């Protein structure tokens, strides 16, 4: 990609991150997936700052819990994207609220 | 539009990993364009601006915008919330992977 924008850079980073932790299971024709173990590793290595907040940590725990219900045990790209979205969404909400309260106190 | 503090980084940014900075970027771009909805949602126009300006290479992976806008219903009422925006970025991401 030539000159990419901030947003395109961000999307690419998240894609590369999936590729970093995912692997193919047995046959090379299978799509890449992340095992639950590697997903936890990924969360603690790559999202350690974002998940220090207890609220966020709880959200992440819930996400992993939901994963456990999925008998498949391995996380596809779509599932990975949804999970990261589940982490991003409350953060987006918090940032919005913080900015609003700053405005109110001014 | 686009002139707001899109590039404003939080002060603890240096410590963040690339993945965290990437997530923050995706969030900040949404907030930056969601003017009318006060950072809660994008209008169809705002969504279109975002895709055209911020996804020049990946925009086509998101699919035809006109169709998406039509699906959103009445343009004066339609709202694209963060979750839907995130899914849209997921489509762009799948486009990345195909390359």
UniProtKB/TrEMBL annotation, chain A:
Pfam families: S_100. One of its GO terms (molecular function) is calcium-dependent protein binding. The keyword Calcium applies. The keyword Metal-binding applies. Keywords: Calcium, Metal-binding. Transmembrane segments: none annotated. One of its GO terms (cellular component) is extracellular space. It comes from the Eukaryota. Residues 55-90 form the EF-hand domain. This is Protein S100. It comes from Sterrhoptilus dennistouni.
Automatic annotation (TrEMBL), chain B:
GO terms for molecular function: calcium ion binding; calcium-dependent protein binding; chemokine receptor binding. SMART domains: S_100. Transmembrane segments: none annotated. One of its GO terms (biological process) is toll-like receptor 4 signaling pathway. GO terms for cellular component: extracellular space; perinuclear region of cytoplasm. Residues 19-60 form the S100/CaBP-9k-type calcium binding subdomain domain. This is S100/CaBP-9k-type calcium binding subdomain domain-containing protein.
């Amino acid at each position: 990609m030539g000159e990419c924008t901030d947003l395109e850079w961000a999307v690419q980073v998240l894609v590369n991150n999936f590729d970093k932790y995912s692997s193919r299971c047995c046959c090379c024709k299978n799509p890449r997936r992340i095992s639950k173990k590697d997903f936890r590793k990924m969360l603690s290595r790559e999202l350690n700052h974002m998940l220090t907040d207890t609220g966020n940590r709880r959200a992440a725990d819930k996400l992993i819990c939901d994963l456990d219900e999925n008998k498949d045990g391995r996380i596809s790209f779509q599932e990975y994207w949804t999970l990261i979205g589940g982490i991003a969404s409350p953060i987006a909400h918090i940032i919005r609220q913080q900015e609003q309260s700053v405005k109110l106190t001014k | 539009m686009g002139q707001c503090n899109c590039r404003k980084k939080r002060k603890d940014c240096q410590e963040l990993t690339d993945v965290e900075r990437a997530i923050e970027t995706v969030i900040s771009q949404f907030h930056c364009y969601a003017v009318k909805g006060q950072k809660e949602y994008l209008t169809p126009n705002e969504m279109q601006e975002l895709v055209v300006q911020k996804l020049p290479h990946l925009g086509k992976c998101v699919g035809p915008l006109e169709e998406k806008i039509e699906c959103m219903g009445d343009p004066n009422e339609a709202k694209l919330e963060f979750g839907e925006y995130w899914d849209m970025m997921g489509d762009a991401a799948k486009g990345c992977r195909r390359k």
